[in-house]
Amino acid sequence: MKKHLLLFYPFLFLLVSCKKNSTVVPPKNNIKAFQHTSISIDGKSSTTGSFNNIEVNPVVKIAFSESISSTDLATNILFNESSGAGIPFSATIENNNTVVIKPTSNLSGIKAYNISIATTLKSTQGGSLETAVSINFNTGIDDSDKFPRITDDELLTKVQQQTFKYFYDFGHPESGMARERNSSGNTVTTGGTGFGVMALVTGVSRNFITRAEGLARTQKIVNFLKTANRFHGVYPHWLDGSTGTVIPFSQKDNGGDLVETSLLMQGLLTARQYFNGADVAESTLRTDINALYNAVEWDWYRKDNSDVLYWHWSPNYNWDMNLPIRGWNESLITYVLAASSPTHSIPKSVYDNGWAQNGGMKNGKSYFGIQLPLGEANGGPLFFAHYSFLGINPTGLSDAYANYEVQNKAHALINYNYCKANPLNYYGYGENCWGLTASDIPSGYTASSPNNDRGVIAPTGALASFPYTPVESMQALKFYYYKLGDKIFKEYGFVDAFSLQQQWFADSTLAIDQGPIIVMIENYRTKLLWNLFMSCPEVKTGMKSLGFTSPNL
Q: Is the Cβ–Cβ distance between 503 and 138 less than 8 Å?
């Protein structure tokens, strides 16, 4: 019996020992997996893991349902730019269950980043993260200067000179005309070329090119225009820069465009006044420009002598576009040049009944405390205050319907104050970032205005308003140049548009947006283009015939 008990006791001891050990180390398949419970950056939370306009030195916190092991913490975290480049960072644990991630140096402004945490992250109990964590965020504006500081005068010259390259360096090699945009190939633009000719005059005056170079380029353009397609003397919106044949703007818009032609003639008449030398080359240029201007049949575009001018006529579709040119918009120059024509002028009744609608274009209401004499509510897109006034000097200019200096200043200030108030809460809008006008947008092209605000700012809006809002325009210029820097200031000056809200920056430049920048900055600085255009004897006569008064007439 004792022998059997002796044999049993060791067996009993083994049973007891096994049972005791099994309570200390549970089976691995009972270890609890865990999840993240919250994500925040700089104290802001997101249920989706996406954040916008984050500071460049962010503090990212991810809380979990279990305490987190510090072993191999950093190896389970990836911190990358959108390009895939890795970002150095530190990772620590706070309150046992929160991982805190910080970049070791400031991030770049206005850029996308991603932080991901792998399922190999462990809890202190040895559990694994059940689902990987992905955090996407965009940084906001980095307030550091992107270019060295220069004087305001030097900055204005730099912007003009860089913008000038669009028209001179990038001008069409065969015709010299301005291309519609930086991706247009052979498509050249009539109105944009008018702006470009005024840019050439500015470039000569500023010594960006010599007078001989400016004259040669202008004559090249004029020689091309002498043989290009015209429709009763009126050019189409687009031409093939090699052949001079019309490129339809739309199916039925394949003939004359009276407004584009008036913008072209505004530039050519300005150049005629500038190149006033007695030598054969400058005399020939003036003669050729006179012939082009005198050939425009402004009166024919009245469509059977009606009291309004029509925008389009096509040899295939006649008047099917059916767009009368009525104010208030960018087309005042069309009526001024039509009235000024020595060969095909229009009477005052066409201006009064057609353009001014016998006062129907008046507004008189106040927006943001500023009374607006003409046009739509809140002023409309800013190019209304630019295109016609590259040449027409609005200073002290009045007629029966408005004081145009008051009109344009009011328009620009309403646009500025709207962006400053920022009723739609677009990121970046403010006293340093304003200007709603026609431009590219992420999904295409639109005429932005306070009544059609898509969150997109076009640099030409504020910069071409320099004569009206010099303080506010300089604030915008400094922000664009110093703070946004090479995101928007490139080979041909400022890109067409940008949206800080969407972190979108156009890669396009457009003739009709670049031109007003260089020309209106020059008018602000010296009144050069205003003085030249307003010195045209035909313009003086024509504007007086429409009832305009001005110290410059």
A: yes
